[in-house]
Task: structure prediction
Amino acid sequence: MAIIIDGREWAGKKREAAAFRTAALKKRGIVPCLAVILVGDNPASISYVNGKERALLEAGMKSRDIRLPADTAEEEILSLISGLNKDRLVHGILVQLPLPGHIQKDQVIAAIDPAKDVDGFHPVSAGNLILGRPGFIPCTPHGILVLLEEMKIPSAGAHVVVAGRSSIVGKPLANLLLKKEINATVTVCHTGSGDLGRYTRQADILVAAAGKAGLITADMVKEGAAVIDVGINRISDERSPKGYRLVGDVDFDAVAAKASYITPVPGGVGPMTIAMLLLNVVISAEAATEAATEIS
Ligand code: NAD
Result:
């Protein structure tokens, strides 16, 4: 039976560390601040944004909450970001995705100053990650790496198979794992990979990030593999007051019987994502403070 990785516990520790560093900055008169831009009223996005803002406040940081109607013009968002880039009281800028269809996501993300790109989605951040240079790391892949490290799951020499090649999870995670100091061998699977099990059965560490409930069944997992479930899927459940419940991409009970480690959904990777966001905001505020000290 697998050890269940308690993402809430590890995230709590990271959030405490972020709060500690925030308190140190506050003594110098600086309050780390994240501007959060939400366009439209997608219920899942509202819930994510509320969760992030609650976590910021709990860590002693500030959140600048910017909510815009779904029909906001792209130019208005670009001009808003331009103002936030120049605002010295703002250390991070987060644009909640997805954006309404008439807005070009890539243009909006590229408008954020890379020094405030705490989501790590800007092309400069992505390039730095690929090149192994310092820069903001996307929060979900970073959170996964922290869980592997904290649970002492060896990544050096391990074969990691990632199901999903998105720019926010699969690709940055693969680049992170390829860094020399982590030294994993990585296979990234996607909708064109064909027989997914052919790859996943070879994984020492399997990361499911496809957004498909029940995608990973026990027969697709090697005995003793560590399984990280990133997926968040709503499935209908009449017994739940909301009428649905959240599940991952992994058939949890059957896979847990075979794996060495497994993350639950909820309570696994999700809390880590928010914790790593808080850390990125503090890092950004610390860097801005250092830069200001050097200039003065
Ligand atoms: P996405 O839709 O952008 O990408 C999904 C990827 O999965 C694609 O690259 C696609 O090629 C691949 N895929 C789909 N079906 C597949 C299949 N049958 N076999 C192999 N690959 C397949 O999604 P995303 O934004 O990367 O998110 C993935 C999942 O992770 C979603 O459920 C999302 O809600 C969740 N998520 C969770 C967190 C968290 O904090 N826990 C953060 C981000 C995303």
Q: What stands out?
A: Residues 140, 163-166, 168-170, 189-191, 193, 196, 209-212, 215, 230-233, 269-270, 273 surround nicotinamide-adenine-dinucleotide (CB under 6 Å).
